[in-house]
Amino acid sequence: MLHVLRRIVLEVGAASNLAEALEIIVRRVKQELTIDVCSVYLRAPEADGQRLLLMASEGLNPDSVGTVVMNSGEGLVGLVAERAEPVNLENAPDHPRFKYFPETGEERYHAFLGVPIIHNRRLLGVLVAQQRERRRFDDEHVAFLITLAAQLAGAISHAELIGEVGKRREEIQQDNLQIAGIPGAAGVAVGQGVVAYALADLESVPDRDADSIEHEEAAFRQAVKEVQDELIEIKDRMEDVLPMEERLLFDAYVMMLGSDSLVNGTVDRIRGGSWAPAALRDTVRESTRNFEDMDDPYLRERASDVRDIGRRILMRLQSHVREPEEFPEHTILLGEDVTATQLAEVPPDRLAAVVSSRGTGSSHVAILARAMGIPAVMGVSDLPVGRLEGRQIVVDGYRGNLYIQPTAELLEEFKHLQDEEKELAEGLRDLAQEPAITQDGVEVPVYANSGLLADIAPSIQSGADGIGLYRTEVPFMIRERFPGEDEQTQIYREILKSFNPRPVTLRTLDVGGDKALPYFPVTEDNPFLGWRGIRITLDHPEIFLTQLRAMLRASQGLTNLHILFPMISSLGELKGAMQLLQRARDELLDEHYVIPVPKVGVMVEVPSAVYLSEALARRVDFLSVGTNDLVQYLLAVDRNNPRVADLYNGLHPAVLHALDQAAQGAHRAGKTISVCGEMAADPASVILLLGMEIDALSVNVAALARVKWVIRSFSRERSRELLRQCIKMEEPAAIRALLDNALVQAGLGGLVRAGKA
């Protein structure tokens, strides 16, 4: 049966539309199970999905397909839908819920087996098998249909998004189709879909021997030169749209084209006898393999950059140059994996929003979208890209949703929100430069999160009080070896000098397990609980000492270096890290460097650190809560996994109790505690963090002004009162409602309305 199931799934996957897929299902199931009837009923989208429509059948009267409709609790099919479990009957007419539909001709059939079609807890329809003779279907048949229905669920859900269900019958055409993704950049937009398709498909390149190694190498080097020139031209074109620091991204792409790993790796393969496209393909695969397996969203996106460069080189090798496209006035750029260069190709005055099937808020395209002030939705796994060209689309970058075929009412609502958003942004522009002081006079510094040198200048201009989290992994990821002490010192020095005397927190190397370095791979069954962060650096003091020495050397003559240790789960780990830090400083003092004593902190991102917060804080200068990881570990939810993404909630009562306990532990030890991550940028969560007396927040630059607005609109006492109420509540939705109401009462309704769009 497994072999048959695979064959059916492959055939269905190759179908061009839902109707064809359903016809394949009913025909093949009837054939393979040697039964008399196989039918599929789907929920109609109108009337709150309370009706089931016969969409395909092999064995019933063909004229009944598309005409037989029943309520979800009506008949045996309705019983399956109601129970959401299989119904297996020897003689269906004997069952009290049996209902006869004359137009189907099913009076001849006695045996009945119905299984629900469920996708992400939502009932889509029912798959039915029937037979003339009286019999109960055996366990093998039941298991087969259940498995097939599960496979069918994804295809139906995908088809619903593009209106395929509606194409079968005019009256059930669905408007306002909502697709959920991951918020990438805040804002709302209304416009016309334009698909950004891959100009060249590296994975389709076949193996082939080079006819002339010299010719292949020359063609490849010429292609690299043309892509370099193209990227420089794109950067110049964006001069009036992006600040110079953000345009450095394209300089980084040009530098990547001159790197040993990409160019020399490809040339070596060509000289080994491969033709240029295949040599390029294998080099790009090697360069991206480690990145693609990473869990860290920020670092995983670097694979997308390498793939984009590889595609552009391949396009030149294939002598195919895409002509400039005509973009509509309000372009919604969509794609399977939208890249920074594809985004930059759209005239800035016509680009309204960007939507990508892959990626997160840490991807370069999301970073650029925020810099350009346009909304972005990333990680839309069910995005039917090929069907959205020219379609009218609404993009909600706050909640990570988009709507296809919006009604006039929905359009009016979002256009009203656009006007409000514009007014709000203009009103907050000056506020961003003001200190964040609560209404009872408590100043709460708001720092910026960063991971690229290109982020530094925008962070300074945004009014950030410093850098609350700088990820140091990137220099390690883009090289073919561990970066040397001098290289690291230069990078860290530039960051520290840019913000001096404002604090800059450098997090030590946080790789391993799910974030393996290309030259230091780590393969584990469970990377989330594996060898990563401080565990690796403690096991390899030669790597750790080099980085610590570089950080300390970079701080000469400055007083703003803060060092942050990630993934600390025990006092023993902290003790080991502190000993190595002291050793690094002693070595530099012996070498006659003048090194100030840096402030040292611990990241609270695993549950054990919450319980040890007071003990940890007594041994360091500050704590910093990484809410993204902490929420995932507390709730056992991967927030980038669409199957469980709805379970990820920073306002879960367990999360609030953990944060409050960590804050109390730090303060009992007389130390400060900050919060970085998505919770620090969520207006509702900020209220509770104020109530917990969190001392500082660290957010992405785009959220900085809004966070300052929240802080300046509440007193500590009012926040404590709301915290006391929320900490007793049991449901995240109720907590969210209470906090949203508090925001509205404080005059911050614009944040709530935008968040609920």
TrEMBL record:
<dbReference type="InterPro" id="IPR036618">
    <property type="entry name" value="PtsI_HPr-bd_sf"/>
</dbReference>
<dbReference type="InterPro" id="IPR006318">
    <property type="entry name" value="PTS_EI-like"/>
</dbReference>
<feature type="domain" description="GAF">
    <location>
        <begin position="17"/>
        <end position="166"/>
    </location>
</feature>
<protein>
    <recommendedName>
        <fullName>phosphoenolpyruvate--protein phosphotransferase</fullName>
        <ecNumber>2.7.3.9</ecNumber>
    </recommendedName>
</protein>
<dbReference type="InterPro" id="IPR023151">
    <property type="entry name" value="PEP_util_CS"/>
</dbReference>
<keyword id="KW-0762">Sugar transport</keyword>
<dbReference type="InterPro" id="IPR036637">
    <property type="entry name" value="Phosphohistidine_dom_sf"/>
</dbReference>
<dbReference type="Pfam" id="PF01590">
    <property type="entry name" value="GAF"/>
</dbReference>
<keyword id="KW-0963">Cytoplasm</keyword>
<dbReference type="InterPro" id="IPR015813">
    <property type="entry name" value="Pyrv/PenolPyrv_kinase-like_dom"/>
</dbReference>
<dbReference type="InterPro" id="IPR003018">
    <property type="entry name" value="GAF"/>
</dbReference>
<keyword id="KW-0418">Kinase</keyword>
<keyword id="KW-0598">Phosphotransferase system</keyword>
<dbReference type="InterPro" id="IPR008279">
    <property type="entry name" value="PEP-util_enz_mobile_dom"/>
</dbReference>
<dbReference type="InterPro" id="IPR008731">
    <property type="entry name" value="PTS_EIN"/>
</dbReference>
<dbReference type="Pfam" id="PF00391">
    <property type="entry name" value="PEP-utilizers"/>
</dbReference>
<dbReference type="InterPro" id="IPR000121">
    <property type="entry name" value="PEP_util_C"/>
</dbReference>
<dbReference type="GO" id="GO:0016301">
    <property type="term" value="F:kinase activity"/>
</dbReference>
<keyword id="KW-0460">Magnesium</keyword>
<dbReference type="Pfam" id="PF05524">
    <property type="entry name" value="PEP-utilisers_N"/>
</dbReference>
<dbReference type="InterPro" id="IPR050499">
    <property type="entry name" value="PEP-utilizing_PTS_enzyme"/>
</dbReference>
<keyword id="KW-0808">Transferase</keyword>
<dbReference type="GO" id="GO:0005737">
    <property type="term" value="C:cytoplasm"/>
</dbReference>
<keyword id="KW-0479">Metal-binding</keyword>
<dbReference type="InterPro" id="IPR040442">
    <property type="entry name" value="Pyrv_kinase-like_dom_sf"/>
</dbReference>
<dbReference type="Pfam" id="PF02896">
    <property type="entry name" value="PEP-utilizers_C"/>
</dbReference>
<keyword id="KW-0813">Transport</keyword>
<dbReference type="GO" id="GO:0046872">
    <property type="term" value="F:metal ion binding"/>
</dbReference>
<dbReference type="GO" id="GO:0009401">
    <property type="term" value="P:phosphoenolpyruvate-dependent sugar phosphotransferase system"/>
</dbReference>
<comment type="similarity">
    <text>Belongs to the PEP-utilizing enzyme family.</text>
</comment>
<dbReference type="InterPro" id="IPR029016">
    <property type="entry name" value="GAF-like_dom_sf"/>
</dbReference>
<dbReference type="GO" id="GO:0008965">
    <property type="term" value="F:phosphoenolpyruvate-protein phosphotransferase activity"/>
</dbReference>
